[in-house]
Amino acid sequence: xxxxxxxxxxxxxxxxxxxxxxxxxxxxxxxxxxxxxxxxxxxxxxxxxxxxxxxxxxxxxxxxxxxxxxxxxxxxxxxxxxxxxxxxxxxxxxxxxxxxxxxxxxxxxxxxxxxxxxxxxxxxxxxxxxxxxxxxxxxxxxxxxxxxxxxxxxxxxxxxxxxxxxx
Length: 167
What we know:
Elements: E1 3-9, E2 18-20, H1 26-29, E3 46-52, E4 67-75, E5 77-82, E6 91-93, E7 114-126, E8 129-140, H2 144-147
Antiparallel strand pairs: 1-4, 2-3, 3-4, 5-8, 6-7, 7-8
């Protein structure tokens, strides 16, 4: 899994500590440390600290706490997928089929994103449908066609604008 160096509070700087980034406060975006702190992480994703590096004395502009450089890797998301998509090692398109069911990951995964199933944990029934409870990672963003499905793309015509009879 991809590893990223970022900053966390001294209290979180412990190997094995897991955390989730819910959103990025506006105050962070103007901070000089943003690009090496929350700017490297994706809101909605969970991370696990795998290495702690020596502190360089940076302080958080919001909490005024000491920030410590750490290496994190994205932790898998646990959620529901239809049984026909729940195969370990397979990359599938998330289509939000479980919307409205408890355990549906639509708060952290967008419709159209490609996800890689890493582990099947069990089964769950919701609205008379069977789902698999799985661990997965998001591997790519949704395609433009899914993001903007209200507009239909049409390829330009290759036919000549007027046909004249051949002589």
